[in-house]
Each structure stands twice: as C-alpha cells, then as structure tokens.
Write a structure and sequence with these properties.
By secondary structure, the chain is α+β, with helices and mostly antiparallel strands. Helices cover about 35% and strands about 25% of the residues. A hairpin with a 5-residue loop joins strand 13 and strand 14.
Length: about 325
Amino acid sequence: DKTIVLNRVLMHMMDIEHHQVLFSDGFVDLNPTSLEYYDKKLEKIFYHPQLKEIELGNFASIILRSKQMLEDDEKYFEHSKIITREWFEIAALIQDMPNANLLFMDTRVNGEDYMVILKLNYKIAPCMVQEVDEEGHEVMRISQRQSVPSKSQNVEEAICVNTETNQVFIIEKKFMIDGKMDYYLNAQYLKGEPKMTDKEKIRIMEKSIQKVDRQYRINEFEPSVLIKQALTDCVVENKEVKPAEIAAKIFERDYGAQEECLEMMADLGVGEEDVVELTDSVEKMARCKLVTDTDIEVILSVDDYLSQNHVRKVVNEDGSIS
C-alpha cells in the first residue's frame, strides 16, 4: 500500500470554450470536504492501471519546474502558470477538448516528494432551467451544465513528477486528432520516451509462458492457472513480483524451456530485474474459471483446481478434457 499525503493545491482553469486561461492567485482551501475529494483523486492516480512512466532527461523543463515549485512559493505560482499556458495552447487545438481545471498538488508518496498535475476535464450533463418568457410566464427548458468530475469518477489525464528521482509518470486520454483517436499529452507536450507499463510486462510474461508451454508441454495444468498461483503467492508472502522469476519457476523442471522463455521475454523488453506492481486483488487472482463445451462456467479457487479438490480432469482419446 502507498502512503499518500497532500500538502498544498493550486488550481488554474483552461477555458477552452472562450479560449482563455484563468489563473488563481492563492492556494485552495483544504477543508475536510475538499481534502476528501483530492485525497480520492490522488489515490486513483497512483493506483491507476494506465499510469505509465516516460523517460525524460534530468534537465527536462517539467522536472526542473516541479523541483522549483516545491522549493519556493513564488516559483510555485510562476511555473504553474507557465505549464498551464503551455498545456492550454496544445489542448485548445484539439477537437472536442472540454474545459478543464488544472490542479498542481504538492504531494508526498511513501516519503518521496511529488508534484502531481491533475487535469480535471469538465463533464456535460443535461439539466432543467426555469425561465420567464416574453409574456411573463414561467417556462422550463432543458439546458446543459458543465461540472468537474465527482470524486468517484476515474482520472483521465495527469502528470506525476518525482522530484527526488526525476521520474515522470503520466495518465493519458485519447482525443480526435487529424481524423483519428490518439494521445497528445506525451507526443505533443512532454515528448518523452514511453516505458513499458507493469500491465504490459505481465502480458508479455503470460504470452511468453503460454507460447513455450504449447511447445514443451511440461506442466500438467494450464499456464494461466500456474501464473495466477505464482502471483498470489508473491502478494501473500509480501515478495517482489518479478515476471522473470515467475516464468523460471513455472519451467523449473526443464532448463531448455526456461531459458527459451526468459530469452523471449528479454527480447520483448522484460528483463530479470524487472519488478511490477499488481492492480488485481488477491481474491481475484486466487480464482479461476472453467468453461465446458456447453458454455457452462465454473468458478473455483486456484488451490482447489491445482489440488483437484472438487474437480477431476479426464483426458479423452481425442485429446479433449472432461
């Protein structure tokens, strides 16, 4: 679990509709209600499945500005306005870009300082408006109201700068760009080199293990079930989750298969020292699903399946499993 502590928040507004930026001259009042909202948003950012790291040089402007903002209040205002203006100039050129608030959040995560820049895209919802017509009669009409996302809604765009390690993490949203849906935040603004997400590393591990297993047929049980068991064991035993170690364990009975799988993973960018964080709960990873030829789904625990408790597998003459 991450320990996330919010210290200060500064908010500016991108008024895309009227092509202007509205700057604040003071920090947001952190009362219990607003603090609950911001804390929830920070939690959603740092546990977001699409939060990915990008590689920027140590002298990238977003890193240098973030460092100075945390060191000096005057720089906090100065650099936040520059970043807002730069981001606005790019966002304003994109089709269907909504108005947004840009929050600059002085945050500590597990004892390390972060500048978190959260873009809250306004949501449009229909509402009833009461008016008086030319004859003095009260009438109701349907209008549209813009509002910031609720605390429970997902985070769509954010930049997180670890000012101690110079790491930069982002969450991106696709918009219509040049006739197709695409990302813009990194490609047009930050211009960093994307690093593989933990989810992508897990996917590479799964596909590599499945491919090698189809060739060697070493284990009695399906790779997906063995992977779930290995991931669950890491969490329960509070161990680091290293995809290469999990692959090595699954193929520990065959050195050739093990080496082929590890080499395949390395070629795809997942090395022996890579460590990932899991977003799925232990309860979810500890379950597996069986589907019969009549499309009946049976859900049971991984332990029960591997120990053949409450279930029995029979390999038929034609190779099918009953």
